[in-house]
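hi!! sorry for the late reply, been swamped w classes. u asked for the two structures so here they r. pasted raw, havent cleaned anything up. first the sequence of the first protein and right below it the tokens
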Amino acid sequence: MTALDFGPVMLGGNVFGWTTDREQSFRVLDAFVDGGGRSIDTADVYSAWIEGNSGGESESIIGEWFASRGRRDDVVLATKVYSHPERHGLSARNIAAAVEDSLRRLQTDRIDLYFAHRDDQEVPLEETLTAFDRLVRDGKVRELGASNHSPARLREAAEVASSAGLTPYTVAQDEYSLVARDAEIDLLPTLGTLGMVEVPYSSLASGFLTGKYRPGATVDSKRAGSAAKHLDDPRAVDLLDVLDDVAAAQGVSVPAIALAWLAAQAHVAAPIASARTPEQVGDLLQAARVTLTRQELEQLSAVTEPVSA
């Protein structure tokens, strides 16, 4: 079980150095922590997919913000290893090198939560977990997480850690939202059995669950294609009406309701959501003020209930 307090929502750092430049990123980070936010999620690969970037841009911006503001102790910091173009995979050698790169970019002496960004089936789990365990024992990492791992691999990792006396994974990170609910079928029950918690990414479905995307509407966003695809699903369109009604009843934003629903699900510690502007941060943090009634939870859940759940 994790000892980390993520607060009501984790701020996603994937936009820093991508859709949000350094100056704007600083304003977003200021707004988030000043508004009561307590945790930030990033990865060593963010944002290598942009022309001219090499990976590590998000970590570097966050590190510069820590140095400028002196707020490192106010934040639970999560980052990841596996996907960086020059630090690929989960071998012991790569993990040892990648963590030093991340610590340098983040301008800190420890990472609160260090994720295996993907499952590396080319490397024995015992090698990976032994390398991670060494980081914990050396004080460079507080807890370990597994992102995008199957339930079977999470169970296997737990068995390896237990039998070898190694630090186990305590946190998972996977796609989960009101319009992507496959995690409910096997993943979340597995986490419950293992004593792990989930911090879901794509909590707002690339912006679809902010309510900006409606039939006939045009949204200027680099993620518009990923968000607008949900308009092809009649259930997702119906969900927007329910979100509108619950948001109006609660007196908060639509994204706050979507995040509050996610936070209320079993084994979810805090949803991850990103913001390009300080104004968007306010909408995210509203989720902390929301306590959905049982009826509201059922209304929201019923629209997109997984068929196999």
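now the second protein. again sequence first, tokens right under
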Amino acid sequence: MFVEKWLTPNPVTISPDETISAVAIEMSRRKLRHFPVCEPTRSGQRMVGVVAKFDIARGFPNDLNPFSVEVTEESVPKPVASVMTKKVITVAPDCPIEEAARLLRSHRIGCLPVLQDGQLIGIVTQSDLFEAFISLTAAKSGGTRIFIESDFDDSPVPAVLDFCRANRVEILSMMSFHENRLRRRDMSIFRFHGRLAKGFIPAMAAAGYRVVSVGE
């Protein structure tokens, strides 16, 4: 899956000339944590930076809460360009979501502007990636979630697929990961539509796999 499916298109942007306090007010009003900072061009918008809540707080005096009702647009008249991040890490629309997650984590940032042909077309945040993960695991789809433990080199997927075909069970999602490389064990997670099919656990045991847990 790619970033283009999960980005927020046409994000709210601000001018580098906006005052720091005006941006603080706008963040509070819109309940947003980041703004791309852009300058208009003939073909769209050229991004010159990103400003986050942390940057805004850094630009305020210590005795004034930047997101309180006491703040006016002129409370801190310096331009937001003075506190924004200028060297911005960006991604393309076809960036895999796992790469976007790696960038957010490794650089300890909260958002990634999405550029196409040098123009800002969207923004992807940590919340967007959480939503992508929920979608990948079909967590909102109900049904039954099964954890299966297997040997490192013996995936249970073929056995599960055979059982589902024979019993007309619909798989909503599946994924596998190494639980512990030293033990050479894998953990696979399946989500099925509806309740656990009768005979599933005995069928997995007969195939040499252990069902660790069953839940919703």
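hope this helps!! also noticed smth abt the second:
The chain has a mean pLDDT of 90.
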